[in-house]
Design goal:
This protein is of the alpha+beta class and 456 residues long. Helix content is 33%, strand content 25%. The protein folds into 3 domains: 100 residues, Rossmann fold; 70 residues, Dna Ligase, domain 1 (2-Layer Sandwich); 237 residues, 2-Layer Sandwich (D-amino Acid Aminotransferase, Chain A, domain 1), CATH 3.30.470. It has 15 helices and 20 strands. A hairpin with a 2-residue loop joins strand 10 and strand 11. Helix 4 packs antiparallel against helix 5, helix 7 crosses helix 8 and helix 12 packs antiparallel against helix 13. The chain binds adenosine-5'-diphosphate. The site of adenosine-5'-diphosphate has 20 residues, from strand 8, strand 12 and strand 13. The site of adenosine-5'-diphosphate (ADP) has 20 residues, from strand 8, strand 12 and strand 13.
Length: 456
Protein backbone atom coordinates (compact mmCIF):
# COMPACT_ATOMS: atom_id res chain seq x y z
CA UNK A 1 0.00 0.00 0.00
CA UNK A 2 1.07 3.58 -0.57
CA UNK A 3 2.75 5.49 2.24
CA UNK A 4 2.01 8.99 1.01
CA UNK A 5 -0.45 10.32 -1.56
CA UNK A 6 -0.29 13.77 -3.11
CA UNK A 7 -3.75 15.20 -3.74
CA UNK A 8 -3.58 17.23 -6.95
CA UNK A 9 -6.76 19.19 -6.39
CA UNK A 10 -8.55 21.67 -4.13
CA UNK A 11 -11.91 22.20 -2.45
CA UNK A 12 -14.28 19.47 -1.37
CA UNK A 13 -12.78 16.71 -3.51
CA UNK A 14 -9.29 17.31 -2.08
CA UNK A 15 -10.81 16.93 1.40
CA UNK A 16 -12.75 13.84 0.33
CA UNK A 17 -9.53 12.16 -0.81
CA UNK A 18 -7.72 13.20 2.37
CA UNK A 19 -10.52 11.62 4.44
CA UNK A 20 -10.13 8.32 2.56
CA UNK A 21 -6.33 8.37 2.98
CA UNK A 22 -6.61 9.14 6.69
CA UNK A 23 -8.96 6.19 7.19
CA UNK A 24 -6.58 3.94 5.25
CA UNK A 25 -3.59 5.13 7.31
CA UNK A 26 -1.91 6.84 4.35
CA UNK A 27 -0.13 10.20 4.75
CA UNK A 28 -1.26 13.05 2.49
CA UNK A 29 0.29 16.02 0.75
CA UNK A 30 -1.93 18.98 -0.16
CA UNK A 31 -0.95 21.27 -3.01
CA UNK A 32 -2.39 24.76 -3.12
CA UNK A 33 -2.32 27.97 -5.08
CA UNK A 34 -1.71 31.34 -3.45
CA UNK A 35 -5.51 31.86 -3.38
CA UNK A 36 -6.00 28.71 -1.28
CA UNK A 37 -3.40 29.11 1.46
CA UNK A 38 -6.03 29.03 4.22
CA UNK A 39 -8.12 26.20 2.77
CA UNK A 40 -9.23 23.19 4.77
CA UNK A 41 -7.47 20.73 2.48
CA UNK A 42 -4.21 22.43 3.40
CA UNK A 43 -5.06 22.30 7.10
CA UNK A 44 -6.02 18.62 7.14
CA UNK A 45 -3.23 17.19 4.99
CA UNK A 46 -0.09 15.96 6.74
CA UNK A 47 2.09 18.12 4.50
CA UNK A 48 1.37 20.99 2.15
CA UNK A 49 3.18 22.74 -0.61
CA UNK A 50 2.39 25.89 -2.59
CA UNK A 51 2.47 25.21 -6.33
CA UNK A 52 1.94 28.68 -7.77
CA UNK A 53 -0.32 31.69 -8.19
CA UNK A 54 -4.13 31.67 -8.21
CA UNK A 55 -4.44 31.17 -11.98
CA UNK A 56 -5.14 27.44 -12.54
CA UNK A 57 -2.84 27.30 -15.56
CA UNK A 58 0.05 28.27 -13.27
CA UNK A 59 -0.84 25.98 -10.36
CA UNK A 60 -3.46 23.20 -10.39
CA UNK A 61 -3.00 22.66 -14.14
CA UNK A 62 0.80 22.73 -14.06
CA UNK A 63 2.21 19.22 -14.51
CA UNK A 64 5.78 20.34 -13.68
CA UNK A 65 4.61 22.04 -10.46
CA UNK A 66 2.66 18.98 -9.35
CA UNK A 67 5.35 16.46 -10.22
CA UNK A 68 7.98 18.60 -8.45
CA UNK A 69 5.75 18.76 -5.38
CA UNK A 70 5.44 14.97 -5.40
CA UNK A 71 9.19 14.50 -5.79
CA UNK A 72 10.07 17.01 -3.05
CA UNK A 73 7.66 15.43 -0.58
CA UNK A 74 8.43 11.83 -1.57
CA UNK A 75 4.82 10.98 -2.43
CA UNK A 76 4.44 7.55 -4.01
CA UNK A 77 1.09 8.25 -5.69
CA UNK A 78 -1.01 11.14 -7.00
CA UNK A 79 -4.80 11.34 -6.79
CA UNK A 80 -6.03 13.92 -9.32
CA UNK A 81 -9.68 14.20 -8.14
CA UNK A 82 -12.00 15.58 -10.85
CA UNK A 83 -11.52 18.54 -13.18
CA UNK A 84 -8.05 20.07 -13.50
CA UNK A 85 -5.58 17.32 -14.56
CA UNK A 86 -7.80 14.37 -13.70
CA UNK A 87 -8.16 13.28 -17.32
CA UNK A 88 -4.68 14.24 -18.46
CA UNK A 89 -3.03 11.26 -20.11
CA UNK A 90 0.11 13.40 -20.12
CA UNK A 91 0.17 13.68 -16.30
CA UNK A 92 -0.43 9.92 -16.06
CA UNK A 93 2.52 9.32 -18.44
CA UNK A 94 4.85 11.66 -16.58
CA UNK A 95 3.87 9.92 -13.33
CA UNK A 96 4.78 6.58 -14.87
CA UNK A 97 8.14 7.92 -16.03
CA UNK A 98 8.84 9.31 -12.53
CA UNK A 99 7.75 6.08 -10.78
CA UNK A 100 4.84 7.80 -9.09
CA UNK A 101 1.53 5.91 -9.27
CA UNK A 102 -1.30 7.84 -10.96
CA UNK A 103 -4.59 6.93 -9.29
CA UNK A 104 -6.67 6.36 -12.40
CA UNK A 105 -6.68 4.24 -15.55
CA UNK A 106 -3.56 3.66 -17.67
CA UNK A 107 -2.50 6.66 -19.80
CA UNK A 108 -3.31 4.81 -23.04
CA UNK A 109 -6.89 4.20 -21.84
CA UNK A 110 -7.29 7.84 -20.77
CA UNK A 111 -6.03 8.93 -24.19
CA UNK A 112 -8.35 6.60 -26.08
CA UNK A 113 -11.47 7.53 -24.14
CA UNK A 114 -10.54 11.22 -23.91
CA UNK A 115 -10.91 11.44 -27.69
CA UNK A 116 -14.67 11.18 -28.02
CA UNK A 117 -14.58 10.13 -31.67
CA UNK A 118 -12.13 7.31 -30.89
CA UNK A 119 -14.11 6.37 -27.79
CA UNK A 120 -17.26 6.10 -29.92
CA UNK A 121 -15.50 3.75 -32.30
CA UNK A 122 -14.04 1.58 -29.51
CA UNK A 123 -17.37 1.37 -27.69
CA UNK A 124 -19.31 0.56 -30.85
CA UNK A 125 -16.91 -2.32 -31.44
CA UNK A 126 -17.48 -3.49 -27.87
CA UNK A 127 -21.23 -3.70 -28.49
CA UNK A 128 -22.34 -0.53 -26.71
CA UNK A 129 -25.50 1.04 -28.21
CA UNK A 130 -24.74 4.21 -30.17
CA UNK A 131 -26.58 7.13 -31.67
CA UNK A 132 -26.14 7.29 -35.44
CA UNK A 133 -23.32 9.66 -36.29
CA UNK A 134 -20.01 10.23 -38.00
CA UNK A 135 -17.40 7.51 -37.90
CA UNK A 136 -14.63 9.66 -36.46
CA UNK A 137 -13.90 13.39 -36.82
CA UNK A 138 -15.61 15.25 -39.67
CA UNK A 139 -13.08 17.08 -41.83
CA UNK A 140 -15.09 19.43 -44.05
CA UNK A 141 -18.41 21.21 -44.45
CA UNK A 142 -19.28 18.86 -47.31
CA UNK A 143 -18.56 15.79 -45.16
CA UNK A 144 -20.65 17.30 -42.34
CA UNK A 145 -23.54 17.86 -44.76
CA UNK A 146 -23.37 14.25 -45.91
CA UNK A 147 -23.37 12.84 -42.35
CA UNK A 148 -26.28 15.11 -41.36
CA UNK A 149 -28.26 14.10 -44.48
CA UNK A 150 -27.67 10.42 -43.74
CA UNK A 151 -28.70 10.52 -40.09
CA UNK A 152 -31.34 13.25 -40.43
CA UNK A 153 -31.80 16.55 -38.58
CA UNK A 154 -31.56 17.62 -35.81
CA UNK A 155 -27.88 16.79 -35.26
CA UNK A 156 -25.35 17.85 -32.65
CA UNK A 157 -21.77 18.83 -33.44
CA UNK A 158 -19.38 17.99 -30.62
CA UNK A 159 -15.68 18.53 -29.98
CA UNK A 160 -13.66 15.30 -29.93
CA UNK A 161 -11.73 16.77 -26.99
CA UNK A 162 -14.92 18.16 -25.39
CA UNK A 163 -15.73 18.31 -21.71
CA UNK A 164 -17.74 20.27 -19.19
CA UNK A 165 -20.56 20.75 -21.65
CA UNK A 166 -18.47 23.08 -23.82
CA UNK A 167 -18.03 23.12 -27.58
CA UNK A 168 -21.41 21.67 -28.59
CA UNK A 169 -23.73 22.99 -31.33
CA UNK A 170 -27.24 21.79 -32.02
CA UNK A 171 -28.27 22.07 -35.66
CA UNK A 172 -31.96 21.89 -36.45
CA UNK A 173 -31.95 22.59 -40.18
CA UNK A 174 -29.61 22.08 -43.16
CA UNK A 175 -29.12 25.80 -43.73
CA UNK A 176 -27.60 26.26 -40.25
CA UNK A 177 -25.08 23.47 -40.68
CA UNK A 178 -22.12 25.14 -42.42
CA UNK A 179 -21.99 28.07 -40.02
CA UNK A 180 -22.44 25.82 -36.95
CA UNK A 181 -19.71 23.50 -38.19
CA UNK A 182 -17.21 26.35 -38.59
CA UNK A 183 -18.04 27.91 -35.20
CA UNK A 184 -17.87 24.55 -33.43
CA UNK A 185 -14.41 23.92 -34.90
CA UNK A 186 -13.25 27.39 -33.88
CA UNK A 187 -14.66 27.07 -30.37
CA UNK A 188 -13.15 23.62 -29.92
CA UNK A 189 -9.75 24.91 -31.06
CA UNK A 190 -9.96 27.83 -28.62
CA UNK A 191 -11.22 25.78 -25.67
CA UNK A 192 -9.25 22.54 -26.05
CA UNK A 193 -6.43 23.33 -28.49
CA UNK A 194 -7.86 20.69 -30.87
CA UNK A 195 -10.39 21.79 -33.47
CA UNK A 196 -11.67 18.32 -34.46
CA UNK A 197 -15.41 17.80 -34.20
CA UNK A 198 -17.78 14.89 -34.79
CA UNK A 199 -21.50 14.69 -35.43
CA UNK A 200 -24.25 12.60 -33.93
CA UNK A 201 -28.03 12.52 -33.96
CA UNK A 202 -29.56 15.01 -31.52
CA UNK A 203 -32.12 13.48 -29.18
CA UNK A 204 -34.98 15.86 -28.42
CA UNK A 205 -35.83 15.15 -24.81
CA UNK A 206 -33.54 12.52 -23.35
CA UNK A 207 -32.61 11.57 -19.82
CA UNK A 208 -28.94 11.53 -18.85
CA UNK A 209 -28.20 8.15 -17.25
CA UNK A 210 -24.70 7.04 -16.34
CA UNK A 211 -23.15 3.87 -14.93
CA UNK A 212 -20.38 3.82 -12.35
CA UNK A 213 -17.81 1.07 -12.74
CA UNK A 214 -14.66 0.00 -10.94
CA UNK A 215 -12.06 -2.39 -12.28
CA UNK A 216 -8.84 -3.76 -10.81
CA UNK A 217 -5.58 -4.94 -12.40
CA UNK A 218 -6.60 -8.59 -12.04
CA UNK A 219 -9.38 -8.55 -14.62
CA UNK A 220 -12.26 -7.87 -12.20
CA UNK A 221 -14.77 -5.23 -13.30
CA UNK A 222 -17.94 -4.44 -11.40
CA UNK A 223 -20.72 -1.89 -11.97
CA UNK A 224 -22.28 0.07 -9.14
CA UNK A 225 -25.58 0.86 -10.83
CA UNK A 226 -26.72 4.06 -12.45
CA UNK A 227 -27.13 7.71 -11.62
CA UNK A 228 -29.65 9.98 -13.25
CA UNK A 229 -28.21 13.43 -14.04
CA UNK A 230 -30.95 14.93 -16.20
CA UNK A 231 -31.20 18.13 -14.15
CA UNK A 232 -28.61 20.20 -16.00
CA UNK A 233 -28.04 23.80 -16.91
CA UNK A 234 -25.92 24.61 -19.94
CA UNK A 235 -25.10 20.87 -20.07
CA UNK A 236 -23.71 21.06 -16.52
CA UNK A 237 -25.24 18.83 -13.86
CA UNK A 238 -27.08 20.47 -10.94
CA UNK A 239 -28.89 17.58 -9.24
CA UNK A 240 -28.09 13.88 -9.47
CA UNK A 241 -29.79 10.83 -8.03
CA UNK A 242 -29.47 7.09 -7.72
CA UNK A 243 -31.27 4.94 -8.68
CA UNK A 244 -33.05 6.49 -11.67
CA UNK A 245 -36.78 5.97 -11.50
CA UNK A 246 -36.67 5.28 -15.24
CA UNK A 247 -34.42 2.23 -14.82
CA UNK A 248 -35.88 -1.12 -13.73
CA UNK A 249 -33.86 -3.83 -11.99
CA UNK A 250 -33.85 -5.77 -15.23
CA UNK A 251 -32.52 -2.84 -17.27
CA UNK A 252 -29.93 -2.08 -14.58
CA UNK A 253 -28.62 -5.62 -14.83
CA UNK A 254 -28.64 -5.59 -18.62
CA UNK A 255 -26.92 -2.20 -19.03
CA UNK A 256 -24.58 -3.02 -16.15
CA UNK A 257 -23.43 -6.09 -18.06
CA UNK A 258 -22.98 -4.01 -21.25
CA UNK A 259 -20.70 -1.48 -19.52
CA UNK A 260 -18.72 -4.14 -17.68
CA UNK A 261 -18.04 -5.93 -20.99
CA UNK A 262 -17.12 -2.64 -22.66
CA UNK A 263 -14.75 -1.72 -19.82
CA UNK A 264 -13.09 -5.12 -20.13
CA UNK A 265 -12.75 -4.66 -23.90
CA UNK A 266 -10.54 -1.59 -23.38
CA UNK A 267 -8.82 -3.05 -20.29
CA UNK A 268 -10.27 -0.35 -18.11
CA UNK A 269 -8.94 -0.11 -14.56
CA UNK A 270 -9.84 2.09 -11.58
CA UNK A 271 -13.10 4.06 -11.29
CA UNK A 272 -14.94 5.29 -14.36
CA UNK A 273 -18.33 6.38 -15.60
CA UNK A 274 -20.12 5.42 -18.79
CA UNK A 275 -22.51 8.20 -19.77
CA UNK A 276 -25.64 7.53 -21.83
CA UNK A 277 -28.66 9.34 -23.12
CA UNK A 278 -31.93 7.47 -22.77
CA UNK A 279 -34.90 8.18 -25.03
CA UNK A 280 -38.60 8.07 -24.14
CA UNK A 281 -38.77 4.41 -25.22
CA UNK A 282 -36.01 3.44 -22.80
CA UNK A 283 -33.27 3.00 -25.43
CA UNK A 284 -29.74 3.81 -24.28
CA UNK A 285 -27.15 5.61 -26.40
CA UNK A 286 -23.50 5.96 -25.46
CA UNK A 287 -22.11 9.46 -24.96
CA UNK A 288 -18.71 9.19 -23.33
CA UNK A 289 -16.59 7.61 -20.62
CA UNK A 290 -15.27 9.80 -17.82
CA UNK A 291 -11.99 8.32 -16.64
CA UNK A 292 -12.01 9.80 -13.14
CA UNK A 293 -13.96 10.04 -9.91
CA UNK A 294 -17.03 12.20 -10.54
CA UNK A 295 -18.62 15.01 -8.55
CA UNK A 296 -21.75 12.91 -8.12
CA UNK A 297 -20.07 9.73 -6.81
CA UNK A 298 -21.57 10.13 -3.28
CA UNK A 299 -25.08 9.19 -4.42
CA UNK A 300 -23.70 5.82 -5.52
CA UNK A 301 -21.78 5.50 -2.24
CA UNK A 302 -25.01 6.08 -0.31
CA UNK A 303 -27.06 3.43 -2.09
CA UNK A 304 -24.27 0.83 -2.28
CA UNK A 305 -22.58 1.56 1.06
CA UNK A 306 -19.18 1.45 -0.68
CA UNK A 307 -16.31 3.95 -0.58
CA UNK A 308 -15.30 4.53 -4.20
CA UNK A 309 -12.27 6.71 -3.39
CA UNK A 310 -10.79 4.08 -1.08
CA UNK A 311 -11.44 1.51 -3.77
CA UNK A 312 -9.58 3.69 -6.30
CA UNK A 313 -6.57 3.84 -3.99
CA UNK A 314 -6.55 0.10 -3.33
CA UNK A 315 -6.86 -0.68 -7.03
CA UNK A 316 -3.99 1.68 -7.92
CA UNK A 317 -1.87 -0.06 -5.29
CA UNK A 318 -2.48 -3.35 -7.12
CA UNK A 319 -5.02 -4.86 -4.75
CA UNK A 320 -8.01 -6.87 -5.91
CA UNK A 321 -11.48 -5.34 -5.80
CA UNK A 322 -12.76 -5.80 -2.27
CA UNK A 323 -16.21 -7.04 -3.45
CA UNK A 324 -17.84 -9.06 -6.21
CA UNK A 325 -20.75 -8.02 -8.44
CA UNK A 326 -23.04 -10.34 -6.52
CA UNK A 327 -22.15 -8.52 -3.30
CA UNK A 328 -23.19 -5.10 -4.64
CA UNK A 329 -26.66 -4.22 -3.41
CA UNK A 330 -28.71 -1.07 -3.81
CA UNK A 331 -30.62 0.30 -0.83
CA UNK A 332 -32.97 3.28 -0.76
CA UNK A 333 -32.63 6.44 -2.81
CA UNK A 334 -29.95 9.16 -2.81
CA UNK A 335 -30.03 12.70 -4.19
CA UNK A 336 -27.23 15.25 -4.50
CA UNK A 337 -27.60 19.03 -4.91
CA UNK A 338 -24.57 20.97 -6.08
CA UNK A 339 -24.59 24.24 -4.16
CA UNK A 340 -22.92 26.95 -6.21
CA UNK A 341 -21.79 30.41 -5.19
CA UNK A 342 -24.06 32.20 -7.62
CA UNK A 343 -27.14 34.34 -7.77
CA UNK A 344 -30.10 31.91 -7.89
CA UNK A 345 -32.04 34.18 -10.24
CA UNK A 346 -29.44 35.58 -12.66
CA UNK A 347 -27.03 32.62 -12.23
CA UNK A 348 -24.12 35.10 -12.10
CA UNK A 349 -21.20 33.83 -9.94
CA UNK A 350 -21.07 35.24 -6.42
CA UNK A 351 -17.62 34.66 -4.91
CA UNK A 352 -16.49 36.43 -1.74
CA UNK A 353 -16.41 36.17 2.03
CA UNK A 354 -18.85 33.81 3.73
CA UNK A 355 -19.87 35.24 7.13
CA UNK A 356 -22.05 32.44 8.39
CA UNK A 357 -22.14 28.86 7.16
CA UNK A 358 -24.23 26.07 8.57
CA UNK A 359 -25.71 23.12 6.74
CA UNK A 360 -27.59 20.86 9.14
CA UNK A 361 -26.92 17.13 9.24
CA UNK A 362 -29.26 14.55 10.68
CA UNK A 363 -30.12 11.03 9.56
CA UNK A 364 -29.17 10.24 5.98
CA UNK A 365 -27.39 13.53 5.30
CA UNK A 366 -23.87 13.99 3.98
CA UNK A 367 -22.28 17.36 3.28
CA UNK A 368 -19.11 17.38 1.18
CA UNK A 369 -17.63 20.86 1.38
CA UNK A 370 -14.45 22.77 2.08
CA UNK A 371 -16.42 25.94 2.90
CA UNK A 372 -16.96 27.25 6.44
CA UNK A 373 -17.76 30.51 8.22
CA UNK A 374 -15.23 33.29 7.56
CA UNK A 375 -13.79 31.58 4.49
CA UNK A 376 -13.42 33.34 1.17
CA UNK A 377 -14.59 31.76 -2.08
CA UNK A 378 -12.01 32.87 -4.65
CA UNK A 379 -13.29 33.96 -8.06
CA UNK A 380 -10.65 31.90 -9.87
CA UNK A 381 -12.22 28.45 -9.75
CA UNK A 382 -15.45 26.52 -10.21
CA UNK A 383 -18.34 28.07 -8.29
CA UNK A 384 -19.43 24.86 -6.52
CA UNK A 385 -18.98 25.37 -2.76
CA UNK A 386 -20.76 22.35 -1.31
CA UNK A 387 -22.49 19.13 -2.21
CA UNK A 388 -25.47 18.16 -0.12
CA UNK A 389 -26.28 14.48 -0.44
CA UNK A 390 -29.22 12.78 1.23
CA UNK A 391 -30.28 9.16 1.50
CA UNK A 392 -33.85 8.08 2.15
CA UNK A 393 -35.73 4.81 2.17
CA UNK A 394 -37.33 5.90 -1.08
CA UNK A 395 -37.28 8.88 -3.46
CA UNK A 396 -40.09 10.63 -1.64
CA UNK A 397 -38.24 10.53 1.67
CA UNK A 398 -35.01 11.65 -0.03
CA UNK A 399 -36.78 14.67 -1.56
CA UNK A 400 -38.40 15.62 1.77
CA UNK A 401 -35.04 15.24 3.51
CA UNK A 402 -33.21 17.37 0.94
CA UNK A 403 -35.84 20.10 1.22
CA UNK A 404 -35.52 20.07 5.01
CA UNK A 405 -31.72 20.43 4.80
CA UNK A 406 -31.87 23.19 2.19
CA UNK A 407 -34.53 25.13 4.12
CA UNK A 408 -32.44 25.00 7.29
CA UNK A 409 -29.12 25.88 5.64
CA UNK A 410 -27.56 29.23 6.44
CA UNK A 411 -24.99 30.68 4.05
CA UNK A 412 -24.50 34.40 4.57
CA UNK A 413 -22.28 36.86 2.73
CA UNK A 414 -22.54 35.35 -0.74
CA UNK A 415 -25.48 34.24 -2.86
CA UNK A 416 -26.02 30.56 -3.46
CA UNK A 417 -28.08 28.30 -5.67
CA UNK A 418 -29.99 26.93 -2.63
CA UNK A 419 -33.24 28.82 -3.49
CA UNK A 420 -33.02 27.46 -7.05
CA UNK A 421 -32.64 23.92 -5.73
CA UNK A 422 -35.74 24.37 -3.59
CA UNK A 423 -37.71 25.55 -6.62
CA UNK A 424 -36.61 22.44 -8.51
CA UNK A 425 -37.46 20.10 -5.63
CA UNK A 426 -40.93 21.63 -5.36
CA UNK A 427 -41.64 21.31 -9.08
CA UNK A 428 -44.45 18.79 -9.75
CA UNK A 429 -42.56 17.23 -12.67
CA UNK A 430 -39.45 16.74 -10.53
CA UNK A 431 -41.52 15.19 -7.76
CA UNK A 432 -43.20 12.87 -10.27
CA UNK A 433 -39.83 11.98 -11.80
CA UNK A 434 -40.76 13.38 -15.21
CA UNK A 435 -37.20 14.41 -16.02
CA UNK A 436 -35.26 15.27 -19.15
CA UNK A 437 -32.15 17.27 -19.96
CA UNK A 438 -34.51 20.13 -20.91
CA UNK A 439 -36.10 20.28 -17.47
CA UNK A 440 -34.21 23.44 -16.47
CA UNK A 441 -35.53 25.47 -19.41
CA UNK A 442 -38.48 26.42 -17.19
CA UNK A 443 -36.05 28.24 -14.86
CA UNK A 444 -34.53 30.82 -17.16
CA UNK A 445 -32.12 33.40 -15.71
CA UNK A 446 -33.61 36.79 -14.91
CA UNK A 447 -31.45 39.90 -15.46
CA UNK A 448 -32.08 41.60 -12.12
CA UNK A 449 -30.08 40.17 -9.19
CA UNK A 450 -32.03 39.04 -6.17
CA UNK A 451 -31.33 40.73 -2.84
CA UNK A 452 -28.91 39.08 -0.42
CA UNK A 453 -31.51 38.85 2.29
CA UNK A 454 -33.87 36.79 0.16
CA UNK A 455 -31.27 34.34 -1.00
CA UNK A 456 -28.83 33.82 1.84
P1 LIG B 1 -19.33 16.93 -21.94
O1 LIG B 1 -18.22 15.95 -21.99
O2 LIG B 1 -18.93 18.28 -22.42
O3 LIG B 1 -20.03 16.95 -20.61
P2 LIG B 1 -21.36 15.15 -23.06
O4 LIG B 1 -21.13 14.41 -24.32
O5 LIG B 1 -21.23 14.39 -21.78
O6 LIG B 1 -20.41 16.44 -23.02
O7 LIG B 1 -22.81 15.82 -23.10
C1 LIG B 1 -23.25 16.67 -22.08
C2 LIG B 1 -24.74 16.91 -22.21
O8 LIG B 1 -25.07 17.43 -23.50
C3 LIG B 1 -25.60 15.67 -22.07
O9 LIG B 1 -25.84 15.31 -20.73
C4 LIG B 1 -26.87 16.10 -22.81
O10 LIG B 1 -27.66 16.94 -22.00
C5 LIG B 1 -26.32 16.93 -23.96
N1 LIG B 1 -26.11 16.10 -25.17
C6 LIG B 1 -24.95 15.59 -25.63
N2 LIG B 1 -25.13 14.86 -26.74
C7 LIG B 1 -26.44 14.90 -27.04
C8 LIG B 1 -27.28 14.34 -28.08
N3 LIG B 1 -26.78 13.59 -29.05
N4 LIG B 1 -28.60 14.60 -28.04
C9 LIG B 1 -29.14 15.37 -27.05
N5 LIG B 1 -28.42 15.93 -26.06
C10 LIG B 1 -27.09 15.70 -26.04
Amino acid sequence: MFKKILVANRGEIALRIIFACRELGIKTVAVYSEADENSLHVRFADEDICIGPARSADSYLSVPAIISAAEITGADAIHPGYGFLSESAYLAEVCEACHIRFIGPDPSVIRLLGDKAKARRAMKKAGVPMLPGSDGPVESEEAAAKVARDIGFPVIIKAVAGGGGRGMRIVKEPKELAHAFRTAQREAEAAFGVGDVYIEKYLESPRHIEYQIVGDHHGNVVHLGERECSIQRRHQKLIEESPSIAVSDKVRRKMGAVVVDAARAVQYTNAGTFEFLMDAKGNFYFMEVNTRIQVEHPVTEFVTGLDIVKEQIRIAAGERLSFKQSEVTFTGHAIECRVNAEDPVTFVPSPGLIHAFSIPGGPGVRVDTAAHAECTIPPNYDSMIAKIIVHGRDRQEAIARMKRVLEMSVVEGIRTSIPLHLRILNDPDFVAGRLSTHFMERFQPVKKPSSLAETA
